[in-house]
Automatic annotation (TrEMBL):
Family: Belongs to the bacterial solute-binding protein 9 family.
GO biological process, one term: cell adhesion
Domain of life: Bacteria
UniProt-recorded name of the protein: Manganese transporter
Organism: Salinicoccus roseus
Signal peptide annotation: 1-23
Amino acid sequence: MNKIHPFFILAASLMLLMGCSEAESSEDGRPDVVVTTTFIYDMVQVISEDTDAFDTSLVIPAGEDPHIYQPKASDLKLILEADTLIYQGLNFEGRMVDVLDEGVSVTKNFSKDKLMFEGEGEADPHFWFDIDLYKSATNTVYETLAEAYPEHRDTFLRNRDAYFEELDALDAYVGDRIEEIPPSSRLVITPHDAFGYLASNYDLEVHAPQGISTDSEVSNSTIEETANLIMSRDIKAIFVETTTNPDQMKRLQEIIDSRRGAVEVVGSEGEALLSDSLAQEGDSGDTYISMFRHNIDTITEHLK
């Protein structure tokens, strides 16, 4: 017999409690735009700057891993009562995809040939490390907000265009920094495979013991293969991510130490890479642009 997912039980219970009532706006009377991830939250903040068209609510808090985030009853209530719901898609919000169908996915206009895939399987959802794809997603946010709040369309458009110029400057900055790393050292080792788009666009290699989702197991043989790769390429540093367990990287370091090698685990004092979430508000990396610069600066300084 098929098991019923606990989230469906939660959803059914809340829907019964809410009945057929219409969605309520936020306490200050403005509509509520609900977004699932920090990346979309940042897009909405950028596009809606200098307006008071709506309030914005975030479902998955900064620092949490969307792949494995277990939604709460309050999250579902927020989603069901949203005036506008915007989510990532590509199965990124792995444990809540069944309640997002009524929203708008920022990846809905992506061309399949622009996406990366894990073998013959699912698409890699970490598109934000491809700035052109991030622009496309941001444009979908602009279109969604302009349709829902047309009186602010001109401001939204002006903000989008100015932001695209900032993203073009970011693209140039990233390319210049990568050039500082010798070609033979451009191998980025991380816990899970979140940086494929970055590698594809900026002449890097990436390798991770875990696949594109953190909701998967890591075998001993994969750890051994990764250690062998680090030794054979004489890689100086491997990188922890803020939303993953650092134990994999420490284990790799121990294996390499036992073979009389040496590798630095980069992840202390704010140096961990930001992959699946932006930083907490007020911390370095709490916007898309500052996140990207943080990652590139950290990678470059430790591999060059």
